[in-house]
Amino acid sequence: ESTDTSVDHPNKQEEGRIVLLSAVVVEVEDGIRLDYIRDTLISLGIYAVVCMALLLGSYWLLDMLTPGHLTRIIKDGGWNAALLAASNLVAVALIIVFAMLGQPVSFAGIVTATVFAIAGTLFQALGLWIIRKVWFGSADFEAVLHERVTPVGVFLAAAAFALGLSLAVAVH
To answer: 15, 66, 88, 133 - which has most CB atoms within 10 Å?
Structure first.
């Protein structure tokens, strides 16, 4: 009787290295592991809900940090606000992805990834708030309201992305 556990989890330890097997279908001698596919699809659904909630929450936090209503500013042609919001969403998506990497497809894995992603998202908002207070006074931060792209807007977008990327690596 074999003690190989590769059918229980898509990652298999083999002579000190990880061999990734298919995450969708894991074939065993008796056929396809339908329970594994079911569990993976359920986990995918839960991760999708968590991801959307975190992305919406991060946008809401960013909206609280910017002068005025962020969505209105973007709709009115505010390129700086659009750059900042887009870079922040990409940064938070990276935080979420890195928090999920390496987590098992299980309830514990989902909870762990969610906790790390929430923490990373909150630190992202805190970091942007600190950047706003340290590098810019409230007058300079008003550049987010400009309809044209300004150096302040580009800097804030780059800072949001760099901060998010750093946090993403930290949560992994």
So the answer is: 88
